[in-house]
Design a protein that fits this description.
Blueprint (H helix, E strand, L loop, with lengths): L6 E4 L20 E5 L5 H4 L8 E7 L9 E2 L11 E2 L12 E12 L2 E5 L7 E8 L2 H4 L18 E4 L1 H13 L4 H9 L11 H4 L1 E4 L4 E6 L2 E8 L4 E9 L3 H4 L9 H10 L2
Parallel strand pairs: 9-13
Antiparallel strand pairs: 1-2, 1-8, 2-7, 3-6, 3-8, 4-5, 6-7, 10-11, 11-12, 12-13
Length: about 260
């Protein structure tokens, strides 16, 4: 069997920890699928624009190997892991992903979409229309996932966090608030239930506080187990003073960090 990409997805999520666990949690972050020229895909896209959602079949191009079991974001009660075929884990025998995204418009070979969980640069293998009559089964049982329904936490911002987040957003493509919403809305901070490569989280259960790393910034928050609420308190730089004054700038972002630290000492 030979499969070749028909195009590439481009969007805000660059690193694995940028991507939401479900695309619908990433509304307001449009991306685009650019199909390869010279293959008559213009004709293949005909009549697609009338659909509100499409299925995107893609390749997990940054994952190597697979695992027979996985630790889901919120595991079943009494379990730490579930079988890979009973999960949406990206580490699969064949690294193929499936995402139902919102179609905004079609322009030539470019499809503008939203509510996607794909990483920037993801190879797209196929596109199919989402048809509610055939694809939606709202009463279908969802196994162990049903135990997690209603487990969402409220994520709020302090005035200081909102101000700092706006300052960073005006000077970069970073959106710390959306990232925190995606990563912290499931709560359950008493144990590490998320893939550490995506969550990058440290928790102090005594003080009910935590720090979530987003690239080279750090999001400080407090949480309330009873109210099931997270409050994003403030943002700090992930660089030490010594690192900031070093000439090495691996990520090309030390200038914004220096300005941020000077402003929010």
């Amino acid at each position: 069997m030979e499969i070749s990409p028909i195009g590439t997805f481009y969007g805000d999520a660059v690193y694995k920890y940028d991507a939401p666990r479900q695309g619908r949690l990433f509304a307001g972050h449009p991306g685009r699928i650019v199909l390869n020229p010279g293959r008559n895909f213009e004709m293949a896209l005909r009549d697609l624009e009338g659909f509100e959602r499409i299925w995107v079949i893609f390749q997990f191009h940054e994952n190597g190997g697979w695992r027979p079991t996985t630790r889901p974001p919120v595991p079943p009660k009494g379990k730490d892991r579930v079988g890979t075929f009973a999960s949406r884990s990206p580490y699969r025998p064949n690294p193929i992903g499936l995402s139902c995204v919102r179609l905004l418009k079609v322009d030539g070979l470019t499809l503008y979409v939203d509510e996607s969980d794909l990483l920037n640069g993801t190879p797209v293998l196929d596109i199919k229309p989402y048809i509610p009559m055939a694809d939606a089964f709202p009463d279908a049982k969802a196994g162990w996932v049903e135990e997690q329904v209603g487990d969402l936490w409220a994520v709020e911002m302090s005035e200081k966090f909102a101000e700092q987040n706006r300052w960073i957003a005006e000077r970069s493509s970073f959106d710390l608030e959306s990232f925190a919403q995606v990563q912290l809305s499931r709560g359950n901070f008493s144990k590490d239930v998320f893939d550490s490569s995506r969550r990058r989280l440290t928790i102090d259960e005594n003080s009910k506080t935590g720090v979530l790393a987003y690239r080279t910034f750090r999001i400080h928050f407090g949480y309330d187990d009873v109210a099931r609420k997270v409050v994003l308190e403030h943002i700090t730089s992930g660089y030490t003073p010594e690192e900031l004054h070093s000439s090495e700038d691996k990520y090309g972002d030390k200038k914004i960090h220096k300005e941020f630290v000077d402003l929010y000492k």
